[in-house]
Task: inverse folding
């Protein structure tokens, strides 16, 4: 798997914004990516040192619009802890 396909997008929520001060960043990643691939992708793309990676699956939820019902896609989140002093600049400008 290409490292640029592993990380889909950063997740910015109120809780994840509070954790940025502690060096913890949250990303949506490919469902089939493992922790080693996520670590390698983050270190290569953002040029930082990763201390730890926690992952979790986000289960699908039922959504409806009028008479059309469906489900959201199953996704995977990665919570990445960086070495003290390292920062990811995209989050700093938000």
Result:
């Amino acid at each position: 798997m290409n490292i640029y396909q592993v990380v889909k997008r950063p997740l910015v929520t109120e809780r994840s914004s509070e954790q940025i001060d502690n060096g913890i960043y949250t990303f949506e990643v490919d469902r089939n990516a493992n922790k080693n691939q996520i670590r390698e992708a983050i270190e290569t793309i953002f040029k930082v040192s990763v201390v730890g990676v926690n992952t979790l699956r986000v289960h699908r939820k039922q959504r409806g619009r009028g008479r059309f019902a469906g489900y959201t896609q199953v996704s995977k989140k990665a919570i990445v802890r960086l070495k003290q002093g390292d920062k990811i600049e995209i989050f700093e400008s938000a």
In short: The chain has a mean pLDDT of 92. Residues 3-84 form a domain with the Alpha-Beta Plaits fold (CATH 3.30.70.330).
